[in-house]
Amino acid sequence: MKVNIFTDNLNTKIYGQNTVLFESLESTNKKMIEDLNNNIKLEEGSVYIALKQTSGKGSYGNTWHSDNNLGLWFSILLYSPFKKEALSFLPSIALSKCLREKYNTLAHVKWPNDVLVKNKKISGTLIQVTSTNNKNACIIGTGVNLYHEKKDFSLDIQHKATSLYMEIGNKVKLDTFYKDLIYYFEEVYNSDKSLAQYFREYSNMIGHTIKAKKDGKEVEALVKDITEEGYLIVETDKKIETWISRASLDIDTNY
Ligand code: BTN
Question: pLDDT by residue for the chain (255 residues), tens digit each?
Fold first, then answer.
């Protein structure tokens, strides 16, 4: 596969204009951080795509199984003025919008940065921050399950994972899907609408009671709203709480 198929006819001004394609890599996030730390100059919106990742990273130290060519595994570089928390749902909003508008698939953002279709996870994002030449660099790594069949997911996640193929019944070309997604990424990034406004539109959590394990304890929480910083406002036991990070939470996908 040649990289130019990912950049030819790319309908963006900045994002993805510098795209680097790797056949196989430990992790696109890891490689981008290493390159930045080695003073390799990468402009805003640079993208690393790997056809396979031998050591894909998920959130909170989890493994993201991507040692296969069943998905789109990529990282985008932003020198961002946004806060990391708010940024974390930028790719999930862009993907949900792309899936709804281009692939007729009703996708929702699950706070903070998963995308669900019929309550099953189709995508996740891992954001890492490093500093380079006195600038903060955000590496936004997203994995989208494209070609998996049920048997391709490990037994423990089969009931809660899905792929675009499982939803629409056909295998969309990797470069076509990438170009669609990056177009929506740039559109959402440049929009006058805030990410919180988008979240209200693309997540179905607000107004619903969700179940979560919080520090190992089962809780039920009514989701009231999202803040501009990307924090979730919830009501539990008649108390209003602000959830800042998913770190100590395991939110059930059924709500
Ligand atoms: C999660 O939901 O746990 C986050 C998954 C993030 C996976 C992507 S795939 C591309 C990028 N490189 C990585 O090693 N991880 C992210």
Answer: 889 999 999 999 999 999 999 999 999 999 999 999 999 999 999 999 999 999 999 988 899 999 999 999 999 999 976 666 677 788 999 999 999 999 999 999 999 889 999 999 999 999 999 988 778 899 999 999 999 999 999 999 999 999 999 999 999 999 999 999 999 999 999 999 999 999 999 999 999 999 998 888 899 999 999 998 889 999 998 899 999 887 767 888 777
Cα of 4 vs centre of ligand 1, distance in Å, is 24
Cβ proximity of 179 and 10 under 8 Å: yes
Could you tell me the distance, in angstroms and rounded to a whole number, from the CA of residue 148 to the centre of ligand 1?
A: 16
CATH pick for 209-251 out of 2.30.30, 1.20.1630, 1.25.40, 1.10.3470: 2.30.30
* Ligand 1 neighbours (beta carbon < 6 A): 27-29, 53, 56-59, 62, 64, 66, 73-75, 114, 124-126, 141-143
- Give me ligand 1 centre to Cα 234, in Å: 27
Same-fold call for 4-202 versus 209-251: no
Q: Distances from the Cα of 139 to the Cαs of 37, 83, 120, 131, 151, in angstroms?
A: 12, 13, 25, 11, 31
Domain ranges in the chain?
A: 4-202, 209-251
The closest-lying atom of ligand 1 relative to the alpha carbon of residue 60 is 3
Topology (CATH) of 4-202: BirA Bifunctional Protein; domain 2 (3.30.930)
